[in-house]
Design brief:
Blueprint lengths: L2 H10 L6 H11 L2 H6 L2 H5 L6 H9 L2 H14 L3 E4 L7 H4 L7 E6 L8 E5 L6 H14 L5 E4 L5 H12 L3 E4 L13 H7 L3 E5 L11 H12 L2 E4 L7 H11 L3 E4 L10 H8 L4 E2 L3 H8 L8 H9 L3 H12 L4 E2 H8 L3 H13 L3 E4 L3 E4 L1
Helix pairs in contact: 1-6, 8-9, 11-12, 15-16
Length: about 375
């Protein structure tokens, strides 16, 4: 049994220790195992760790639960991807609330090339389904990974269209990996395992409770280069996903619809408020994403050459120019990255031994 993975899963199971706190603990202690073996006095000195959290870590009996999770993963032929693993999706690492553990089953890792999220209403109209089919067909030359939420309506239409056209597709779930919701989509989910896969941050046997769906939506938005909203009401999961993608500085497209159709009111609102580009053809998307010209910025080239994200390569380039290091505020100003995204990107670079933190909130290359 992978000992380090055992402790990483165990951390994710401690009540009150969320994704951000887990990253902080690992950063200060050096590893997930070290969090459990560190004295209480050391844990108490970590910023953001109160006495209650220290007590939860010290007295938690989660290692046995974590052992069960690893056994279930083996039985279900699933992979556990920790935030510190190389196989963890690079795009998802860039978001401040990235999950510390992902449960994945399938044959296409969720970090493959171009990635397009397609979301929309569960009450899809004939027009919405037709547009979904058309968009998937038009995306074929770019060979993207199609990500959606396995729900009724637009989501399942996107998954099934991707399967028909031979595109990989991953369903992000609000339940445990062994609980397909809705159950009516079990056959499609099974088919996706050989042409994509299923992904969740939830432990096995977790039921798809309502509050887990917005959390699921942030993973969909965080995994994708671009999110396309095909039909959406003014309130609902699709608009939540679009708002989250917008907050992550990811591109969002919306398909315009009939002004009298409630299914199109959300898309029309996104376009009207400039929260999404209007989608009229795949050419719109290709131009915005720079997919049709083949041109790439220096940062994108560095990212391709060294396996870095665009944000990571930009930070490394700046730190190369300033060997003595830069304060986090100056890094934020120079990169134009929000502090939340910058902090999580720096943490990822620390985990991969590319950057070191210095006193006074400064950072330098290792």
């Amino acid at each position: 049994m992978d000992e380090q993975k055992l402790y990483q899963v165990a951390l994710s199971l401690i009540p009150g220790v969320g994704n951000f706190l887990t990253k902080t603990l690992i950063s200060y202690c050096g590893s997930a195992k070290a969090v459990f073996t560190s004295p209480r006095t050391k844990l108490a000195k970590i910023p953001g760790i109160g006495a209650k959290t220290v007590e939860s870590i010290a007295n938690s009996n989660v290692l046995k639960e974590a052992e069960k999770e690893l056994l279930l993963a083996e039985q279900n032929e699933a992979q556990l991807l920790a935030y510190t693993d190389k196989a963890y999706p690079a795009r998802l690492k860039q978001i401040p609330d990235a999950p510390n553990i992902l449960y994945f089953k399938g044959n296409t890792l969720p970090d493959a090339g171009k990635t397009v999220a397609i979301v929309g209403t569960r009450q899809a109209s004939a027009y919405g389904k037709q547009m979904t089919e058309q968009i998937i067909a038009d995306l074929l030359p770019y060979n993207p990974l199609i990500v959606s939420g396995l729900a009724y309506g637009i989501d399942i239409t996107a998954h099934r269209a991707a399967l028909r056209h031979g595109l990989p597709t991953i369903g992000v779930m609000a339940s445990g990996l062994n609980i397909i919701y809705p159950s009516a989509h079990k056959n499609t989910a099974r088919e996706m395992l050989s042409q994509g896969g299923l992904l969740t941050e939830n432990s096995f046997n977790t039921q798809p409770e309502a509050y887990k769906f917005p959390a699921r939506n942030r993973i969909i938005a965080g995994m994708a280069d671009v999110t396309i909203v095909i039909e959406a009401a003014e309130k609902g999961g699709a608009l939540i996903t679009a708002d989250i993608a917008h907050s992550y500085d990811r591109e969002v497209f919306a398909v315009p619809g009939n002004l009298t159709s409630p299914q199109s009111s959300g898309c029309n609102f996104l376009i009207k408020t400039s929260k999404a580009h209007m989608y009229t053809s795949v050419k719109d998307l290709a131009e915005v994403m720079n997919w049709d010209t083949g041109k790439a910025s220096l940062q994108q080239t560095l990212a391709l050459d060294f396996g870095l994200s665009t944000e990571e390569s930009l930070i490394i380039q700046l730190l190369k120019e300033h060997p003595a290091g830069l304060h986090i505020d100056e890094l934020s100003w120079r990169t134009q990255l929000p502090l939340s995204i910058l902090a999580s990107t720096l943490l990822n670079l620390e985990f991969s031994n590319k950057v070191r933190s210095l006193p006074g909130k400064k950072f330098a290359l290792k």
